[in-house]
């Protein structure tokens, strides 16, 4: 009996389960999924959880059930590639025949003094809960700084504006304009939304230091009652500690078949993998589709293609509160209610297929 172990119940490994269960899993294969929590979390919606516009239950999806799927809840402490086992805190080690590492990412603070200690996060469900507690309990008129105007920062700033119109919100953007890698029309639309709704946007920002109740942009002090950091990610600590080849961002370099070049039984999916696109839930799912194809072929002792098809992403969709949104789909910028409707539809479909 072969043993497939999935580390992390994120978007990538959920897609692996969706494709293998209930009918695609070979009779001689069992699966163990290891995660800290007894549910899959919708990380793309953590911004709304932190802003207080959705409940905790709305970002949770139960894991599937299957006679040959074993769920282990615990904290992973080490991946031992030599002995082919995963070490779990206060639990027995888990041996594997094939391993898919999908442990996600953590905040990257770019060596900014005080950023780790004095800012809040939305990179995990437990940290998003803590951020919600801070933001929801702040007195009227409190100042909130959000560092980073990528998708997470934009959505958090807009959702928090609708949730707490009494707060003074400042969004610090390192770029010359919001979403500078996308059409200028999108940047202008988002910027105008923030202006119209009283969110200050500071472009070309460079955060040099964070202290309790103060953030420094180009060494200019900005008093803040709370700061949320959305300005970069890095692979999970467990992956950073692995002695394997990585790229300049610390992500694991892989073969064309998504496994370690020196070990065809160890795959990396999602934010920890070195891929030609920026990390995203969509990318993790696309990669997982190919990993399943490779696994099944190897289990059947069938030859693999020399190269896998190029992964094609459908685009991005973002929200500006509950009624407006933006997106870039099929090389076309979309804004307004249509974009928001599309994002809500994608989320509903995801929950429907995975819930």
Automatic annotation (TrEMBL):
All residue ranges annotated as the FAD/NAD(P)-binding domain in the record: 3-283
Keywords: FAD, Flavoprotein, Oxidoreductase
InterPro entries: FAD/NAD-bd_sf, FAD/NAD-binding_dom, NADH-Q_oxidoreductase
Any one GO BP annotation for this protein: aerobic electron transport chain
Pfam families noted in UniProt: Pyr_redox_2
Cofactor: FAD
Keyword Oxidoreductase applies: yes
Recorded GO MF terms: NAD(P)H dehydrogenase (quinone) activity
Annotated PANTHER family: 64 KDA MITOCHONDRIAL NADH DEHYDROGENASE (EUROFUNG), APOPTOSIS-INDUCING FACTOR 1
Family according to the record: Belongs to the NADH dehydrogenase family.
The protein's name in its UniProt record: NAD(P)-binding protein
